[in-house]
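Form 7-S
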Amino acid sequence: MKHIIKTTVITMLVGISMSASAQSKSGYHVINTFHMAGTTGWDYIKLDPGSNKLFQSHGTQVNILDRTTGDSLGVIPNTTGVHGIAFVNSMNKGYTSNGKLNTVTVFDLTSFKILKQVPTDQNPDAIMYDGFSKKIITCNGRGKNLSIIDPQTDTVVATIALEGKPEEAVSDDAGKLYVNLEDKSEIAEVDITANKVLQRWAITPGESPTGLAFDKKTKRLFAGCDNQLLIVLDAVTGKVITKLPIGDECDGTAFDPTLKYIFASCGDGTLTVISEESENEFKIVDKVATKKGARTITIDEHTHYVYLPTAEFEPLPVDADKKTKPKIIPGSFQIIVLGR
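Output:
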């Protein structure tokens, strides 16, 4: 049923909406674009907290850029199917998760020289360093488990079964990990000391969680989901606090502890900015236009810059089905930098 509203009322409503929108804008906008060669895909992007280096997974290699200028600093080769990058700065070592090789590449953070290849279970996807246990953790998609790597020896010292496909993990820096289980629409709580799952929490109405971020102060988890929702979860009780609408094709979330902003990067070309007003109150501040395909994210907590990788794409054929992915236009791969 259609509702007929007089033009004057519409004008008033639009004026009110525009005014509220103008007052609530985050200030984020595109301030730079770093271009790179290549036609292969990409996944995670990561800033090295111990330097000015920006690491970008890029198909069969990892590109290393200056985070300020975008200048190329080097490449980590032979990382076929690379997903993520992690760092152990105290040992001057970096790690890449190579999804198609079922390995982790260990490299020197200064020279970028490859030091070792560590076998993992099937399809290591997200990778992280947990400062509490001092271990590298890979989320193995097809293996449905976590590989725990000791950087002292660069060997797998434990495997934690999850009974679901892990997409991303975060740490509370106090002995627990939280892991998105994409195919179960759950988050698993893991004891990293005992190497076992403690609990699994449903994130209904969220579906197929991908990106995961965490506020260690309020103990709130932020899961970006495939059904255009961001779910806020209590990491103590497992209770869903709230849900917020985001864009389509979300594959990354990030949290800025100073601004108290949660970011959800989506492949539809939007970045949703959400303000954490309190531990149980959240509001959407902005929906920033980015570019199609800009679905993964990293944030510089010092400058508050946000980095999003993407590319330009060829138009899809008229008769293409929903599963058909557009081809990348050669030479169009890029990292978008957003600032305030």
